[in-house]
Design goal:
Residues 1-394 form the Major facilitator superfamily (MFS) profile domain. This protein is mainly alpha-helical and 418 residues long. It contains 17 helices and 4 strands. The protein has helices at 2-7, 12-40, 42-59, 66-76, 82-93, 99-130, 139-143, 145-161, 170-173, 183-189, 191-222, 226-238, 240-283, 287-315, 320-345, 369-388, 396-407, and strands at residues 175-177, 347-354, 360-367, 414-416. Strand 2 and strand 3 form a beta hairpin.
């Protein structure tokens, strides 16, 4: 993004619009994708999503204006619906007693992909320059070819080596999701769905924000190099490999003893810690301290991601896909609202910098310090609100029993179609 910003002469308002477009497309896609999964199964739905979304990834490098870049970024955002397919797939593939851990682990690997991209993309861009394929200014364009190709490769792998269900695919088995009720409305009417939606907006929404804004924040505010900024942002994403699964594991253990309310308490505490960490992150002016604080609140928010989706399969076993879709969309709604905040609170300033040739030049930079500070306060308040909300029935034995009973029943019932 720093390279694209400079070459396309993107303003702070345009950058804000691009980030909003990136997450807004995902909101709609996540709400709709559940119906496609119910009808065609996760295998075909996922395969086509990967194929279709490879097109804007491959073509965004041809952008010559803000408008075309914005359009391609909007289209790329659709692939964020893949998360709902993953959560549906793990929910029907794994035993109820470990659904939370399975969902959190799969989600953790998904988020770690963003971290790996932040580390690898600058290196891939530098590789094209080193091979003499392009100039440094155009390197971001060529670098985008690699993830586009990888999407097509994994579409083939997913189609060939996965099944919709443990015993086969939808078409082969002639089965359908059995429900006489509107699963979407079941999810909408359950207040616990909205508690989790708000919570996910406050944790996953922040994660998307950090993935998108951290590279620019570190380069413009602290003067870090592109490689250093990419490494820091990349490591932030990679800790999902253990942080999000840890949240799911801890939440499952807490749930066995304290039921839904125990899991809700854990989720609220993680959000409070996250908010405090972001507040101090926005206040510090030292790069080393900022990196430390980023990992501190990063651990909390990623564990909160896992804790949220340890609850999702048990909110309403008849509407797992709809609950997962609404909560997942909530994460992107949070990211979109945060993007508006960053757009409004961004401060543009100029600074003299020395380039690689030793020549001093004035560059226009953007500072998001105030935005991070305000965001931390909002997340802290959200954690307190989630803590105050009554998440389940008052009797803790009933809560524990409810989880145990749900754990003995399949989240989705499949029957042969007539």
């Amino acid at each position: 993004m720093p390279l694209a910003k400079e070459q396309l002469h993107l303003t702070k308002d345009q950058l804000g619009n691009i980030q909003i477009a990136a997450v807004s497309a995902t909101i709609i896609a996540r709400l709709l994708i559940g119906r496609l999964v119910d009808k065609f199964g996760p295998r075909l739905t996922y395969t086509w999503l990967l194929i279709i979304c490879s097109v804007p990834v491959l073509l965004i490098g041809t952008s010559q204006s803000y408008e075309s870049f914005l359009l391609f970024r909007l289209a790329i955002g659709v692939i964020g619906a893949s998360f709902v397919i993953t959560q549906f797939h793990t929910s029907v593939m794994f035993a109820p007693s470990i659904k939370g851990t399975a969902n959190a682990t799969a989600g953790g690997f998904g988020n770690a992909g963003a971290g790996l991209a932040n580390i690898m993309m600058p290196l891939i861009a530098a590789g094209f320059v080193g091979l003499g394929v392009c100039t440094p200014e155009d390197s971001w364009r060529y670098a985008m070819i690699i993830p586009g190709i990888l999407l097509l490769v994994f579409a083939f792998i997913y189609f060939k080596y996965t099944k919709d269900l443990p015993n086969g695919n939808y078409k082969e088995l002639g089965i359908e999701n059995e429900t006489k009720e509107n699963t979407f409305m079941l999810a909408v009417k359950d207040y616990r769905t909205w508690v989790l939606t708000i919570a996910y907006a406050a944790c996953f929404g922040v994660e998307i924000t950090i993935d998108n804004f951290a590279p620019i924040y570190f380069t413009d505010t602290f003067g870090a190099s592109l490689a250093t900024a990419g490494l820091c942002a990349g490591l932030f994403g990679l800790i999902n490999l253990f942080a999000r699964p840890l949240g799911g594991i801890v939440a499952d253990k807490v749930g066995k003893s304290y039921g839904f309310s125990g899991k809700n308490l854990l989720l609220a505490l993680l959000l409070v810690i996250e908010g405090i960490g972001i507040i101090f992150f926005g206040m510090t002016d030292h790069l080393g301290v900022a990196i430390f604080l980023m990992f501190l609140f990063g651990m909390s928010l990623k564990m909160a991601n896992g804790a949220t989706y340890s609850l999702v399969p048990f909110v309403n076993p008849k509407a797992v896909g709809s609950v997962a879709g609404i909560v997942g969309a909530g994460g992107n709604i949070g990211a979109m609202l945060i993007a508006f905040l960053f757009k409004a609170k961004a401060v543009k300033f100029s600074k003299d910098v020395i380039d690689e040739s030793g020549v001093s030049q004035t560059k226009d930079l953007i500072d998001y310090t105030n935005a991070f500070y305000i965001l931390g306060i909002i997340i802290l308040i959200t954690g307190v609100i989630v803590l105050a909300v009554k998440f389940a029935v008052s009797n803790k034995e009933e809560e524990t029993e409810e989880i145990e009973l749900n754990g003995k029943e399949p989240a989705v019932v499949f029957v042969k179609s007539k």
